[in-house]
């Protein structure tokens, strides 16, 4: 098995296509295929904030659900969009408003199609993905070693939001503990969620959310090679959105 795990896309569809090209994939009937039978896997947060969230939904649905040529796990933004599509009263902010604006600009029949595709993609996907063939676990915001193989509310909250304390920084961002500093397991934990300037490797964990939607880059982590490939963002630079660590 050869896997390319792709970081938070957040509606950056053009950069996603560029990344697939850089990784050696070519499009066949709209689906990226690799000559060495590599498979892409998405670490969640496909939508929100970026310019083309609905195109990303169509693309990943075709790849994962219809052609079964890739993998996907949901992020917190995916969870919020799912709840919106299911009729929950969710607040349209922190990026959801951009996806909803795209959605509401569509004709009624196209809205129904987008909604159905995303609900199907979300409901058919695991909360996190164990890939023992490449000694890896893909989880949107990470996962503790003792949580691997388990489900439940605490696991779901951690996987979607990280190791949150319930407190907030002055800029409104949640305070998160550095769980990766205390991970000593064997499988790679491949995650995103928190934008960093360059992929952050700590123990056997790697954060590949390099903030494409904030002007950074879109990054993939290749397994079993344990290498990264990135393409630069075409979005405006927002330096305050990136987190730094004292590693």
Automatic annotation (TrEMBL):
The domain of life is Bacteria
EC number(s) reported in the record: 3.6.1.17
TM spans (from-to): none
* GO MF, any single term: nickel cation binding
A Pfam family assignment: Metallophos
Residues of the Calcineurin-like phosphoesterase domain: 1-196
**Per the entry, which co-factors are needed?**
Ni(2+)
Q: Which InterPro entries match?
A: Ap4A_hydrolase, Bis(5'-nucleosyl)-tetraP_PrpE, Calcineurin-like_PHP, Metallo-depent_PP-like, MPP_PrpE-like, Ser/Thr-sp_prot-phosphatase
Keyword set, alphabetical order? GTP-binding, Hydrolase, Nickel, Nucleotide-binding
Q: What are the annotated GO cellular component locations?
A: cytoplasm
Q: Which reaction does it catalyse?
A: P(1),P(4)-bis(5'-guanosyl) tetraphosphate + H2O = GMP + GTP + 2 H(+)
Its annotated function is as follows: Asymmetrically hydrolyzes Ap4p to yield AMP and ATP.
Q: Which family does it belong to?
A: Belongs to the PrpE family.
Query: PANTHER family of this UniProt entry?
Result: BIS(5'-NUCLEOSYL)-TETRAPHOSPHATASE PRPE [ASYMMETRICAL], METALLOPHOSPHOESTERASE
User: What's the name of the protein?
Assistant: Bis(5'-nucleosyl)-tetraphosphatase PrpE [asymmetrical]
Provide the species name.
Pontibacillus litoralis JSM 072002
